[in-house]
Specification:
Number of strands: 5
Radius of gyration: 19 Å
Largest sheet: 3 strands, antiparallel
Number of domains: 1
Strand content: 25-35%
Shape: elongated
Number of helices: 4
Helix content: 25-40%
Structural class: alpha+beta
Order of helices and strands: HEEEHEHEH
Strand order of the largest sheet: 2-5-4
């Protein structure tokens, strides 16, 4: 029985989960620094895999779309972290590897200015709340 749990733990830790990070160049993303970007931001997300990471074969995350959804018009000093939280590991273990959540964090620096359409949404929400 002990070998069974060891096998399940091993399978949930070395599953074939792959997240491809890409760009479609909708907003500028760079690894280099930008003197106009002084505010550090973190954008987190999750992707879900099933059947020991076999389905889907991989996920694609478009970094610039994630930055745009967060309301920023560019990002410099890009760093991407993939991670499994203790909760993700527990869920993977309890489902015997049938469900494998994986997280990621995109971090970098932005100008601090929101995209024009995001500014309009903020103004509208302020007038509604008043």
């Amino acid at each position: 029985m002990n070998k069974f749990f060891t096998l399940i733990l091993l399978v949930t830790q070395v599953a074939c989960t792959t997240i491809h990070f890409r760009s479609n160049q909708s907003v500028p993303i760079t690894f280099d620094g930008n003197p106009n970007h002084q505010k550090e931001v973190w954008i987190t997300g999750h992707r879900h895999f099933y059947f020991w990471g076999v389905e889907p074969e991989h996920h694609e995350v478009y970094i610039d779309e994630e930055v745009r959804k967060a309301g920023y018009n560019g990002l410099s000093k890009l760093i991407i972290y993939e991670h499994k939280s203790p909760q993700d590991n527990l869920i993977s273990f309890l489902t015997l590897g049938l469900y494998l959540p994986r997280g990621y964090t995109i971090t970098g620096f932005v100008s601090g200015e929101m995209m024009p359409e995001e500014k309009n949404l903020d103004l509208e929400s302020e007038t509604v709340n008043d």
